[in-house]
Amino acid sequence: MGKILVTGASGVVGRHTLLHLLKHKSANQLVGLVRDPSKAEDLTAKGIELRQGDYLDPEALDRAFVGIDKLMLTATHAFTDRNTAHSNAIKAAVKAGVNHLVSMPIMRKPNSAFTMKEITEEDIFTKKKILASGLAYTFAEHPPFLDNIHFYIGQRAHETGVLVPTGDGKFTAATRDDLGAAHAAILAGIGHEGKTYRLTGNPAISFAEIATTLSEVTGKKVPYRAVSEEEYTQIKAAEGWPAFVVDFAKGWVHGMNTNEWAEETNDLETLIGHKPTSPTDFFRKHYITA
Ligand SMILES: NC(=O)c1ccc[n+]([C@@H]2O[C@H](COP(=O)([O-])OP(=O)(O)OC[C@H]3O[C@@H](n4cnc5c(N)ncnc54)[C@H](OP(=O)(O)O)[C@@H]3O)[C@@H](O)[C@H]2O)c1
Prior knowledge:
7-stranded parallel β-sheet; Rossmann fold
């Protein structure tokens, strides 16, 4: 029987996907693609084979994808050549005779005009490449990561208050653990070919509601204050982020404030078989001790 390969196995989403796959499949059916095997020794210890390869090295991808039946294409980093990286992986999957490819584009509203440098255009490009490849595919569309929320509101938001540019839109967010569990369910299951899942968390929440939730879980008033773009730039710069990353954060916040990820679906819950981690659960368990 062909194996399941997950790219980006040294990263958070890829690792969670493989760890959840272990609940469905034996380790000898699983493979992780890594650039540096020393970064995923925990997976080797669980019996998962690691194959070395870089998205920018097509020959290495050809070698790594031999004997692979299903492939999870974990999206690569912003601020790199994501188009070439994803395109190389898709081409290698076709060459290797992969039977099913799962990818994780960012969710978009139907007919959305929202664009975000480094993310949206590259994800649209990747989807088109997959559709043109002839591969059987599943699009596991992602909302913003809940466990990355500190990037937008600050690691100490429960002390400083939630200070973000003006906007009353809502957004859903999901943890990378829940998203990895959904990927595993798709890869280990049957009947997911040709489908698009919108893996939203629940409920959608605004930044003002995040402050209310933080107040509830900490037991003290956490203010929400809408700040100007200029003040937000200063806040993020003071946290040590370079200007291009500050702009990136502003792009995400703009999408959140304008309801780009406001839709709630049951796709994530259905795939993982339980309610996804809610913002309240997440803040209670992780954030206030961060
Ligand atoms: N929805 C959201 O809110 C959101 C937010 C941020 C990012 N994202 C997207 O989600 C993706 C996964 O997130 P994550 O948290 O799991 O990221 P992560 O922990 O940084 O993992 C990214 C993985 O991609 C691998 N990778 C990078 N460049 C590669 C290359 N040239 N060839 C092969 N592998 C390469 C990394 O390998 P190394 O360990 O060798 O670097 C790592 O394993 C990100 O890459 C980004 O596209 C989504």
